[in-house]
Amino acid sequence: MKSFLDILNARKPFQKRPAMWLHGEGFLSLSFLRSRIGFARLPWHERLILFMLIVLIAWESILGAYKFSEFPYSAIDFFQHYFLGQHVNRGGSIANTDWPQQVGNLLGHHLPPSMQRTAPYLHYQLLLLPLFRILALMPMSIAYAVWLIVALLLVGWVGAQVASEIGIKRSLLLFALFLWPPIWHVLILGNADVFVWVLMNLGWINFMREREERGGFWMGLAALIKGFPAFAVIPWLIRKPWPALRGFTAGILIGIGWGALGSGAKGWLFMARHISDYQQALIPFMPANNSILAVLWALMGPSATIDRGLSYHGLFRADASPDLLSALHLALSFLLITLAWRSTQRSPRSPFMGQSGAWLSMGLLIWPVSWINYHIYLFT
Fold first, then answer.
1. This model's pTM is above 0.90
2. H runs (alpha helix) in 91-139
3. Where are the domains of the chain?
């Protein structure tokens, strides 16, 4: 089945006349539309695609306006990063886990109770903290506008690099990219996955240019933020290990040093000591998780309460201990990784990028924190 971009780029999408999208003569170009009397004269497939574009643009415009009207609660991830920047700028310590409540009282806004429990233990907060200590010097609305501008510029710049590398016209790829709902969703939320997307694509660009050390470096930085990008490097670690491994290790180490700029070494030590607390705080989020671990919880996890007094429990049984579920998750993950590793070794001629995408898709399932669908769609 042809993809949307395949149809737009095809020389003869449906044979009768050439579609010259990339040369300014396609069915959406002004010169072509002027040559038509109206929408009804377009071939059915062009009418369908044009209708889908109009619906998508209208839907994103309406939804975006609605979300912005709910600020700051529509930007809930930006919200918590900004709070931490405020807390540290006021002389607060990372080790004080009451900072979401304290800053909320000062600013008159409060995170949901479940996020107040998880926010102090998010290790990637340390990587964002140098940036958010600067943003926290501004009023929240202005800081959010700066965040959106920076994120959009990064996505646009990297998207243009990807277009050049794979031979697609930049304007076409950027047009499709900025209509992509997952991009807008993470942008509005102020989610760190925007940076993960940027870093991973920089890594892939360098891998495609056979610069394995640079590719590994960017992937290492991405993996330090969210973990699962480490799976995307595995094909290179299997078949050309040392350059990619050196770069990946350097990315991890430099990222740790960068995170220490905002809170010092004590920030990383605090996060390491409280991994188990983070795991406990994550339990209420299991229904919004798409990992293998979350599936196990959905089948036989114990009862847990989420915000607004709602609760959930396993479908077939509700008495499996979290330790048992974690052990099953590790066993299944080990089995999947072993099978995928052997498959990669037996297919030395398979394209690196295809294998990297397959490993990443599997990694999103294995990684214990794979959030709501738009996060998964963003990377697969």
1. no
2. 99-107, 113-118, 124-135
3. 4-69, 75-267, 283-379
